[in-house]
Amino acid sequence: MFVDKVQISVQAGRGGDGAVAFHREKYVAAGGPDGGDGGSGGSVMLRVDDNLSTLMDFRYRRKYAATPGQNGRGMRCTGKSGEDLVIRVPRGTVVRDVQTGGIIKDMSSREDFVLAKGGRGGWGNQHFATPTRQVPRFAKAGLPGEAMEVVLELKLLADVGLVGFPNVGKSTLLTVTSNAHPKVADYHFTTLYPNLGVIYVEEGVSFVMADIPGIIEGAAEGAGLGHDFLRHIDRCRLLVHIVDVSGSEGRDPVDDFEKINAELAEYSSDLAQRPMIVAANKLDLLPEGSDNLERLRTHVTERGYAFYEISAATTQGTKQLMRVIAGRLATLPPVTVYEPDYVKPLPEAGSVSDLQIQHEGDTWIVSGPWMERLVADINFGDYESRMYFDRQLRRSGLLGRLEELGVEEGDTVSIYDLEFTYEK
To answer: For 355, which of 346, 368, 386, 390 could close a Cys bridge (C-beta 3.0–4.6 Å)?
Structure first.
């Protein structure tokens, strides 16, 4: 079964908690705190697998979770980090955010992509020892891993897309010109999913051609197989419009040509403007005295399209057509790679009542789910991000609550793996 669009949820692993421990060793006095840090949670990663051609595996599994990091231990031992979860996808898979539809990543290159980052491990109490706080009896919890709902949408990486009505010979043309073996039969919708074939024209000259299931008038409203498979020619640099010039099914080739173009425009105005070559197929079945070929030639050339005559069943004109396609591709831009346009929203200020504040000597320890999300999403190496973090702390009312609880100037405010000195 061919599956080319699925929705999945991913959850990166939570970071392990830091340990509260103190050194205990014979003949060693006042060993001090030696609690180790928690390990980082595993991330969820995407990897291109050229052996895959469908998203069918995701039909049976929709939730993916990486393993959490282990907690820290005594003797300054850091917990083991969680293993990354690698999800393999076909080349050409576009990853979109469920809510906004924004493109997160186009998986068209060899590089792995981190879809959901694992949470950082919490600090052990070894980090909190100071000259005035020699016995810290607290550590930090690990941060949660990122969670996302995404849509995986397969858009085949083909140079050329074959379009046309059902049963006009698209699959036959792919069969006789490439190493592909799509199902060929004399009935509508023989092709139920896109097929790819590599066309070798000559030494060093080749291209990938996609046979797209036939569309019919009214496909935009769901007639036939609808428009679902047209996403696979979104990237194609060139369209080859196959028209049955014989009229073997009682249709008029000029009318067929216009109806398919109308459906392409209905699906995408950009696709309607894509460079196109028109191939009149089934010359071997053209009745004597028929004017179909000349009428179609006149109609097509008047609209500025290149026109070629072929018979895929007998291979007449097919080699010439492949050479023409290769020459045309040499003048066109490379296959489209979609640029990401998804912007991850930063968490807005939550309620200060949801935060937990613990007082240890001159240290105030702040924690809570909202604070976890905020810290995990802030890049503290960036000035603007730090300013955003400061604004969110003020909007939440945290600083006011600390003052009510008695925080003094010079005290330390500890928020997960961040510490700063409180100043009024």
So the answer is: 368
Residue by residue, pLDDT tens for the chain (424 residues) are: 467 789 999 999 999 999 988 887 776 656 788 899 999 999 999 999 988 888 888 988 999 999 999 999 988 899 999 999 999 999 999 999 999 999 999 999 889 999 999 998 988 888 878 777 777 887 888 888 999 999 999 888 889 999 888 888 888 999 999 875 655 545 444 445 678 888 999 888 999 998 888 676 554 555 544 566 777 788 889 999 999 999 887 889 999 999 889 888 888 888 888 999 999 999 999 888 889 999 999 999 999 999 999 999 999 999 999 999 999 999 999 888 889 988 887 666 566 677 888 887 788 888 887 787 788 777 777 888 888 888 888 888 888 888 888 888 888 888 876 788 888 7
Give CA–CA dist 333/282, Å, rounded.
Answer: 31
Round to whole Å and give the CA distance between 203 and 398: 69
CA pair distance 8, 46, nearest whole angstrom: 13
Q: What is the CATH number of domain 1-155?
A: 2.70.210.12
Q: In angstroms, what CA-CA distances link 59 with 47, 54, 63, 155, 252?
A: 18, 10, 11, 17, 41
291's tokens = 């004017």
Fold of 349-424: GMP Synthetase; Chain A, domain 3 (3.30.300)
Cβ burial 93-121 (10 Å sphere, 16+ → b, else e): bbbbbeeeeebbbbbbeeeebebbbbbbb
- pTM, two decimals, is 0.76
